[in-house]
Amino acid sequence: MEKGITRRDILKLSGMTLGGMAIGVATGTAVTASASDCTQQSLDPMTNNDYIERLPTYCPGTETLADNEIRISFLGTSFLPRLAQECNSVFIEVGGGKNGEALDQFIFDCGSGVVAKYNAMGIPMRKMDKIFLTHLHGDHMSDLTHIYLFGPAQDRKTPLYVWGQSPSYLTDPTDTSYTYDNDGVKVFCQKFRDMLRWHTESFSFLPTSYKNWTPPTQTDWGLPAPPMPIVPTIGPPDPTNTDGYGVGGYSLVPIELDWTKKGDQTDDNVAYNNPTTGVKITHFPMIHARKGSIGYKLEWKGMSVIFTGDTRPSYELIKQASGVTVLIHEMVVPPEVWAAKNMGYRTPAEAYADSGFQQALTVAKAVQTSSHTPQGALGYMLSQIQPAPRLAVATHFQATDDTIKSAFKSIRNHYPQGDVVIAGDLMVLNVTPTSITKRKAVVNNYAWYPVAELSSALAAPKYQDGQGNMAPTAQIDTTDVIPSGADTYDDSGY
Ligand SMILES: [Zn+2]
Ligand SMILES: [Zn+2]
To answer: Which of the ligands is closest to the CA of residue 371?
Structure first.
C-alpha cells in the first residue's frame, strides 16, 4: 500500500511543526498532498474498517425478535469520539414483547455522541429509561445529559433509572471532609439534576408526565434497595413533594450498587432481577483508574452477556465469564501505537525519530497501567475462561484495518481458536441458544427522533394556563417579540 500523506506531513508542510525541520518537499505541494490524502481514504488501512463494512445488512425496524432471542446493538465503540465510532454504548433487547418487539431493554453506558446513533437506529426515548453505568468517565456517560433532558420532550414521560457505582471511599489525604470520596452515582445524579435545572424548567411548558402512572417497586425489578429517594421530580402536582410535583420524565432515580460485591459469598450483587421479563443483571468489580468501576452480566433464558466497561485484565473477569454467551470486553492498542497516533504519526517506527515520542510513550503507558487491557491480555484471558465464551467482542478500541490486524495477531497468540470480533458502531448481534449472527445496521444519517408513542393520558405541564393547557410564554418576556402577521412575516414555507 502506498504510504499516504499524513496529518503530520501536512503540519510540516504548513510550517507548524517544531524546529522548522527540513522535509525535502516544496511548500507548493501542500494543497495537492492534502487532496490526495482525502481521495485515498477508502483504501487506507488507517481510515477504513473493512470488516465492519462487509458485514451483512441489518435494517432497523423491519424485524421481529423471537421469544428466545437477544439483540445487542453497538451504538458507540471508542474511548475517543470520532465520526465512525462514538464513545461507548451498548443497547441490549430481549425478545417476547408484543408484536415481536422487545420484552425488556437496557442501555449499558452512554458516552458522547451516541444519541445520534440511537435515533438513527429508530430506538425511541421510552425504551431508553434503564441505564447501567460501568463507571463515571465521560466517554461512558456524557450523553446521559441528552437522554435525560430530551426524553420527556419525546415519549419518556416516566423517570430515568440510572444504575451505577457506590462511592469509592478512597481516602484523599488532602480532603479531610472526604468530599472527593463521596463520588457514587447517587451524588452524581443529585448534582446532575441541580446543574440542569434551567433546561428542565424551560422545557416544562410541555407535558412531561402521565396522569396515572405507578412506578415499579423494588420487588417488580428485584432491585438491591428501594428505588428511593427519587431525585427531584416534575410531574403532576403533588404538594407533599418538596419540588411540588410528582413522578415524571424529569425524575431521576439513581440505583447505587456496592462496587465491592462479587456474588461469590452470598447472592448480593444483583442490580436487576425482573420476575416478569426473566432478565437478571448482576455486577462485579473491575479495575480501572480509581476504585468503583463495575462490570455487568445480563442473564436470560440460559444465555448471558457480559459488558465490562473499562478494566485492566482481571482474574475476577475470568471467573465471571465462565460459560458466558457473549463477552463484550474493552481492549487498547499497544502504548507505542497510542503514542504515535496521538502525535499524528502513522506508525511507531516513524514516531521514534521525534524527540517528543518518549514522553508521549510514558504517558500512554501510564494510562494503560492505570486503566486498560492490552490486546495480548485479552487473548490470554479468553484462553483462561472455561468454558470459553461463544463469542468475544473487543470494544473501546479504535478499529481500523491496521489496528485490527495487529490486535488479532496478539489475541491469536494466546487464543488461536474461538469466535472473536472487534466492534464498530452500528454492529448488531442476534443471539439465540443455537446461533449468533453479526450484521451492520444501514441507517438514515439524517434521521429525526423516532415516532413518539404514549402509553397513557398526559398530565398537565408544570407551566400551564390554569386549565391544564400548555403555557409556552410563561417563562419569557414577550414585550419585544415580533409577531407574525400581515405587517411582519409570512411563515408558510412548506
Ligand atoms: Zn473508557
Ligand atoms: Zn474509563
So the answer is: 2
Regarding whether 68 and 22 lie in a shared domain, the answer is no
Give me ligand 2 centre to Cα 14, in Å: 35
> What mean pLDDT value characterizes the chain?
88
Whole-number CA gyration radius for the chain: 25
How close is the Cα of 370 to the center of ligand 2, in Å?
Answer: 10
Note whether 28 and 116 are same-domain residues: no
Interval between CA 310 and ligand 1 midpoint (Å)? 5
For residue 3, what pLDDT band results from cuts at 50, 70 and 90? very low
pLDDT over 90 at 35, yes or no: no
Q: Which ligand is nearest to the CA of 292?
A: 2
Q: How many domains does the chain have?
A: 2
43 pLDDT more than 90 = no
Same domain, 66 and 27: no
Task: Find the ligand nearest to 312 CA.
Answer: 2
Residue 66: φ, ψ to 5°: -70, 160
CA of 284 to the centre of ligand 2 (A): 16
Residues of the domain holding 14: 7-43
Same domain for 26 and 91, yes or no, is no
Ligand nearest to C-alpha 398: 1
Q: Are residues 30 and 176 in the same domain?
A: no
292 and 227 part of one domain:
yes
Same domain flag for 68 and 17: no
Is residue 286 domain-resident? yes
Asked whether residue 27 falls in the same domain as residue 111, the answer is no
What integer pLDDT is reported at residue 211 of this predicted model? 87
Ligand 2 ion: Cβ-proximal residues, 5 Å cutoff: 137, 310
In tens, the pLDDT along 223-255 reads 988 765 566 555 555 555 545 456 789 989 999
Question: Is residue 491 domain-resident?
Answer: no
Residue 293 placed within a domain = yes
Provide the 10 A C-beta neighbour count for residue 357: 18
pLDDT of residue 401: 96
Average pLDDT over residues 64-84: 97
Is 270 within a domain?
yes
- Sheet bearing 57-58, strands edge to edge: 57-58, 436-441, 427-431, 70-76, 89-94, 104-108, 130-132, 160-165, 252-257
Q: Given pLDDT bands bounded at 50, 70 and 90, which one contains residue 416?
A: very high
CB atoms within 10 A of CB 434: 6
One DSSP character per residue, 281-305 reads EEEEE---SSTT-EEEEEEETTEEE
